[in-house]
Write a structure and sequence with these properties.
binds magnesium ion; single chain; eight-stranded mixed sheet; Rossmann fold; binds adenosine-5'-triphosphate; cytoplasm; ATP-binding; alpha/beta; T6A_TsaE; 196 residues
């Protein structure tokens, strides 16, 4: 009933830095230890952002860390709401601005979603561990807004999502989304399924 959530733009010129290329063949100096896969999409509306989140949820496993970056109002929480729907967790995913982290338990057998707003997380990871969340992080899917430079120590295996308002955008709802998988965990994951 809905239009496809996200248009896949493989290797759009100027879109992805060459180091983010999904193909290591074009990059003979690429280190196997730092394999990178990436996906780009143009997301036209909040509903498409939710749908991208639902699709992303299908790829996630307990222990995964997803970092969401992008300016205020880019759509990080909207994407997380779709993730929460896809994971089938309890409670509405809303902006956690007034709490640092919120735990959404699974309604089924899946992992809980831990939604973190690191904006006010001055002390980085230590502070997050001190939050004493009533959940085991390795058993959860952790989604962090504004986590750049703060939570990378958690794991080398990370999914980075960057949301930008598209350059030259005339309508306010168009977003450019880049999803990049870092580390062993994501090395063989086909992110192209996000466009399905
Ligand atoms: N394509 C789009 N994707 C996501 N949100 C969109 C889009 N177009 C418009 N919006 C609107 O932009 C706003 C995004 O808000 P959201 O809370 O998701 O952003 P955020 O990146 O989490 O912001 P913050 O940095 O304050 O946490 C919502 O009001 C949403 O309806
Ligand atoms: Mg937000």
């Amino acid at each position: 009933m809905e239009a496809p959530a996200a248009r896949y733009v493989p290797g759009e010129p100027g879109g992805v830095p060459s180091s983010s290329s999904a193909s290591s063949a074009s990059s003979p100096v690429a280190s196997p230890a730092s394999s990178v896969t990436s996906f780009e999409a143009v997301v036209q509306s909040p509903e498409q952002m939710l749908e991208l989140g639902r699709r992303l949820a299908k790829l996630l496993r307990p222990g995964d860390l997803v970092m969401l970056n992008g300016e205020l109002g880019a759509g990080k929480t909207t994407l997380t709401r779709g993730l929460g729907e896809g994971l089938g967790v309890r409670g509405a995913v809303t902006s956690p601005t007034f709490v640092i982290a919120r735990v959404h338990p699974s309604l089924g057998e899946g992992p809980p979603l831990v939604h973190v707003d690191a904006y006010r997380l001055g002390g980085g990871l230590d502070e997050m561990e001190d939050l004493d969340l009533d959940v085991s992080l390795p058993d959860s899917v952790i989604v962090v807004e504004w986590g750049e430079g703060k939570v990378e120590e958690l794991t080398d295996d990370r999914l980075h999502v960057v949301i930008h308002r598209a350059v030259g955008d005339t309508t306010d709802e168009v977003r450019q989304v880049t999803v990049t998988g870092l580390g062993e965990r994501w090395a063989s994951v086909e992110l192209g399924v996000l466009s399905a």
